[in-house]
Design brief:
Blueprint lengths: L1 H20 L27 H8 L31 E3 L6 H8 L6 H4 L17 E7 L2 E7 L29 H8 L4 E2 L1 H6 L2 E5 L11 E5 L10 E12 L6 E16 L4 E8 L8 E4 L18 E7 L11 E4 L12 E6 L3 E4 L14 E4 L3 E11 L4 E8 L8 E3 L2
Antiparallel strand pairs: 1-2, 2-3, 4-8, 5-6, 6-9, 7-8, 7-10, 8-9, 11-12, 11-18, 12-17, 13-16, 13-18, 14-15, 16-17
């Protein structure tokens, strides 16, 4: 009897051990692990990348005693890390690629040289809010890698379905979309071809001298019948824009007066004015609205030597600041492409040297003329090119920027 009890106890121990070591053969394995940890120094939670870069002050080469590999701050005379470069940064809503690059680099246009593409991630060049960017060193050189956030677009494995209650985050754009969209929706520079082919305002319903918001107006000159609801900007043709290098006319100043949409097709076509910035008059041109600009380009220096001038600025201001749109006299035929970055220089004045020998009676008539050096005043990025001109955004303004200032390779 005692032997039977010992046998029963032994069998129980064996069965219990078997249950503990048994594993299901179909257990799912995640394709990618979600890494929510953030190592090293992280930029403040509430600041966007651009705000953090501005708060940090002027960028410089980081000190050599930070524990990073020697020579990592400078890559063959190209990229230089920011003076307080973080080990990681969590992308936030409102960030731009330019601002993120500024967090890691002194010169953001060198971003392509440190961005480490992960081919296992869908759309590896796109960055989304919630992603964590990490500064790592590969073969002694700094690289920035991305770890996708939890709410990513198919880059992580999902073990169970979910119902989303809000839209997915859009990818981070290189420059502020709202600024560019507002400018492109109201053209300020027109080519001669645009002017020749554009419809024109004929008159208003009640023969108003000045056509304003809410008025009905008539237009002619449409190449094809205008569809109902089509939106048009109304532009008055201003002064010609001349290339300061050869004095050739390369465009015309377009003065936005208002906008409206088609309520009846025909000849003449009927429109109602829905926005009025200033008086609209017969002869003003109608330019189709809704100009699309792709902003998924990467900041980079031009591939060719570029030396041009600022020709015009939006809103007609005389002094240009950050995030204002300007037009330069260089375009696609000069090798420019969206994303290209140029340095802006204040052209030094030419003055009379009446100081060096002033004590001996030298006057202004006999003094020597001296050209003062051009001084760096800002940074400009191209977002749309035409043959001879380009639109761009002032990304940084260290000093007052004006029309006729020079732009060249950074």
């Amino acid at each position: 009897m005692h032997g039977h009890r010992l046998l029963a106890v032994a069998l129980s121990i064996v069965l219990m051990a078997g249950c503990r070591t048994q594993r299901p053969g179909t257990a799912p394995e995640p394709l990618a692990a979600v890494d929510n940890t953030t190592e090293g120094m992280v930029v403040g939670d509430d600041r966007t990348a651009m705000e953090a870069a501005i708060d940090a002050g002027p960028s410089a080469v980081p000190p050599t005693d930070t524990g990073r590999p020697q020579g990592a701050a400078q890559l063959g005379g190209g990229p230089v890390l920011a003076s307080n470069v973080p080990d990681s940064y969590v992308v936030k809503r409102g960030d731009t690629l330019w601002g993120i690059a500024k967090v890691f680099l002194r010169d953001p246009w060198y971003w392509p040289e440190i961005w480490q593409v992960n081919t296992q991630i869908q759309n590896p060049h796109l960055i989304y809010p919630g992603d964590t960017l990490r500064l790592v060193y590969i073969d002694g050189k700094p690289r920035v890698t991305v770890s996708r956030g939890v709410a990513q677009r198919g880059d992580l494995a999902r073990v169970e379905p979910r119902v989303r209650s809000q839209p997915l985050e859009a990818a981070v754009t290189t420059i502020p979309y709202e600024t560019v969209a507002a400018f492109m929706s109201k053209p300020s520079v027109l080519s001669a071809d645009q002017i020749r082919s554009a419809p024109y305002v004929l008159d208003s319903r009640d023969a108003h001298v000045i056509i304003s918001d809410g008025d009905t107006m008539y237009a002619r000159g449409f190449a094809n019948p205008a569809a109902l609801g089509t939106h048009y900007n109304i532009v008055r043709i201003g002064e010609p824009l001349r290339d300061p290098d050869d004095n050739r006319i390369i465009g015309y100043d377009g003065i936005f007066t208002g906008s409206g949409h088609v309520t009846r097709s025909g000849d003449p076509t009927t429109l109602i004015l829905t926005e009025s910035a200033r008086e609209t008059r017969p002869g003003d041109k109608l330019i189709a609205g809704g100009v699309d600009v792709t902003l998924d380009f990467i900041p980079s220096p031009p591939k060719t030597k570029v030396d041009g001038r600022i020709m015009a600025v939006s809103d007609g201001v005389s002094e240009i600041g950050q995030y204002q749109v300007v037009v330069i006299n260089r375009g696609a035929r000069d090798g420019l492409a969206p994303g290209n970055v140029l340095a802006v220089y204040d052209v030094g004045a030419t003055i009379d040297d009446t100081v060096s020998r002033g004590y001996f009676g030298m006057n202004r008539l006999t003094s020597k003329r001296v050209k003062l050096p051009d001084e760096r005043s800002g940074t400009f990025m191209v977002f749309k090119t035409f043959d001879r001109i380009s639109y761009g955004l002032i990304m940084e303004a260290k000093d007052i920027i004006r029309v006729a200032d020079r732009v060249e390779n950074p």
